[in-house]
Design brief:
Distance between the termini of chain A: 35 Å
Helix content of chain B: 40-55%
Helix content of chain A: over 70%
Largest sheet of chain A: none
Number of strands of chain B: 8
Number of domains of chain B: 2
Oligomer: heterodimer
CATH architecture of the largest domain in chain A: Up-down Bundle
Number of strands of chain A: 0
Largest interface: A-B, 41 and 35 residues
CATH topology of the largest domain in chain A: Four Helix Bundle (Hemerythrin (Met), subunit A)
Strand content of chain B: 15-25%
Largest sheet of chain B: 4 strands, antiparallel
Strand content of chain A: under 5%
Chain lengths: ~260, ~300
């Protein structure tokens, strides 16, 4: 059976397949070939997760290292879905790069593989909640980068920004509501306005403003692009900023040690 | 201003007026008293909210203001104001829920801060109004209704139902039957259900587990015998009964068991709203983008 030491045997070929798919899509090669390569990569990496599952005799969701496996798997999957949906050539490079970061952490930082999650996080909701949020962060982050690009260079990216924001907002909604369902099960209340939840609500409202603004004033581009930056700042506050925010110290169930 | 057509300036002015009115109210009557929202007041509020929305919707052809309330020009400033209020809440240290604020304005208890409550109420009202305009079962209305009506239901049920949620502790001795429980403020409540504890045991194999063997009686004459364990609550007549604690000094010899009883009658509606929003987010992922719609529209 497999263990962590076999990770690179599976992860590096998978990464290579994704990288080739990303380069071919950048060069504008045939979509079918790009998708086939990306799917092969997913199969290789998925096999490793399945084998880990079998050898651990439990779903690999318990430790930080195990959840990173899932990020590394889902990022290229979602990248592929976005690519086949909207044909953005750059999206596979982006998802492959992010996935590579998580795979490298898992290969290099072997000492934290078995660091157990705290009991509150040992829930079947944990992985979907976090993975969905990670993907939302990735798509909305890309939207903000494109907004900056357009503000500075004047190149029209509105279509991509709108689509990414829409997908990101859908994932933010799902992640937030999964969090609510999880909280109900774990703490008995679905929403307790803990600092992380407050910032998640603020972020969600900001992206709602963006989406509605685009419908209401589709020609007012500059305010929309600047608002993307506001949204992104809220998101950063929600993601890691609250760990440093004086008003959130010691009262959030979402800050774990450190 | 206020001349045809009503636009975003008026939307911003309404929000500014609501914040100002909220501040005045805060100084005159103090923080919002959510406890007084318990049944039947919340049902009354719900009735007036829905009634108001329906009446305003029906009068929309005569009253410009009501027509405008269902537009983006009214909605966007409301969303911006709510976002600002929420950010304000995020940067101020909040007192635990139910306590009085420790600052002069009341922003340390943001959920009871009138400007916060009024701006959210305004947003909910606008969402309700816009739902009315799309309340016909057409395919193209479904994602819209899942998103907007789902949010309306979840927010209204969550807010109005909060005061009806009961979370009580009940201590029962082996061989005795108990029907009284205490809330967080140590107030005793007599319940419509009673618990008889036959036996409390601590199982150590295969996994550490606390088990209460109980019979639950209800006023309607229902009798249920079952075991309650940690993570395996029992549900009787809308009450969820959790294994909470035992006499820890006596350990496995404990002859008492402490239960937590939770009742949240509005929960099914909150869940309905949440699942509608989840479905709405799902349709957002598989649905077509704006540009695609426009292009397809032209081609067709």
């Amino acid at each position: 059976m497999v263990s962590w030491s076999e990770l690179s045997v599976f992860a590096l070929p998978a990464l290579a397949l994704w990288a080739v798919a990303a380069v071919l899509s950048l060069l504008g090669k045939r979509q079918r070939m790009v998708c086939a390569l990306a799917i092969c990569g997913l199969l290789v990496f998925g096999t490793y997760i399945a084998l880990m599952w079998l050898s651990l005799e439990r779903p690999p969701l318990r430790t930080m290292g195990e959840t990173r496996l899932w990020y590394s798997f889902f990022l290229p999957l979602v990248g592929l879905l976005t690519y086949s949906r909207w044909h953005y050539r750059w999206v596979l490079s982006f998802s492959t790069l992010l996935s590579a970061v998580f795979i490298c952490i898992n290969i290099l930082k072997s000492e934290i593989h078995d660091k157990a999650l705290m009991p509150a996080l040992q829930s079947p909701w944990f992985a979907p909640h976090v993975i969905i949020y990670m993907f939302a962060y990735a798509t909305t982050g890309t939207a903000m980068l494109l907004a900056l690009w357009q503000l500075l260079r004047g190149q029209d990216q509105m279509n991509a920004i709108d689509n990414l924001t829409r997908v990101g907002l859908s994932f933010l909604t799902i992640g937030m509501l999964f969090g609510a369902l999880w909280a109900k099960e774990a703490w008995g209340t679905y929403w307790s306005w803990d600092p992380k939840e407050t910032w998640a609500a603020a972020t969600w409202l900001c992206y709602l403003v963006y989406v509605h603004w685009r419908r209401c004033c589709p020609l007012a581009l500059r305010p929309a692009l600047l608002w993307q930056i506001v949204c992104f700042l809220c998101l950063q506050m929600c993601w890691w900023g609250i760990n440093y925010l004086p008003s959130a110290q010691g009262v959030s169930v979402h800050t774990y040690g450190g | 201003m206020w001349s045809k057509p009503l636009g975003m300036t008026e939307g911003s002015l309404v929000c500014a007026a609501l914040v100002a009115a909220g501040l005045v109210l805060q100084f005159l009557v103090g923080p919002v008293q959510w406890d007084s929202m318990a049944c039947p007041i919340n049902l009354l509020v719900l009735f007036f909210l829905l009634f108001g929305i329906v009446v305003m919707h029906l009068c929309r052809s005569k009253v410009r203001l009501f027509r405008w309330m269902a537009t983006l020009q009214a909605g966007v400033p409301a969303m911006v104001t709510c976002a600002m209020m929420t950010v304000l809440m995020g940067v101020t240290r909040q007192v635990p829920s139910g306590q009085t604020p420790v600052d002069i304005f009341g922003i340390t208890a943001m959920l009871s801060f009138w400007p916060f409550v009024l701006t959210y109420l305004w947003l909910v009202l606008l969402v309700g109004m816009v739902c009315m305009t799309r309340l016909r079962l057409l395919w193209r209305n479904i994602p819209f209704l899942l998103n907007h009506l789902g949010l309306f239901i979840a927010l209204v049920a969550g807010t109005l139902g909060n005061a009806d949620m009961q979370r009580l502790r009940m201590m029962v001795q082996e061989g005795k039957t108990e029907w009284r429980a205490v809330d967080a403020r140590h107030k005793v409540h007599e319940l419509p259900i009673a618990i008889e504890l036959h036996d409390f045991t601590i199982e150590e194999q295969p996994k550490l587990s606390f088990v209460s063997d109980v019979t639950v009686y209800t006023k309607g004459g229902i009798v249920v015998r079952d075991t309650i364990r940690v993570n395996k609550p029992m549900e009787v007549k809308g009450w969820k009964i959790y294994q909470y604690s035992y006499d820890e000094a006596k350990g496995s010899m404990s002859d008492i068991s402490i239960f937590e009883l939770v009742r949240d009658p509005w929960l099914p509606y909150v869940y309905l709203g949440i699942f509608m929003m989840l479905a709405g987010a799902g349709t957002g992922l598989i649905g077509k983008g704006e540009k695609e719609k426009r292009i397809n529209g032209k081609l067709e």
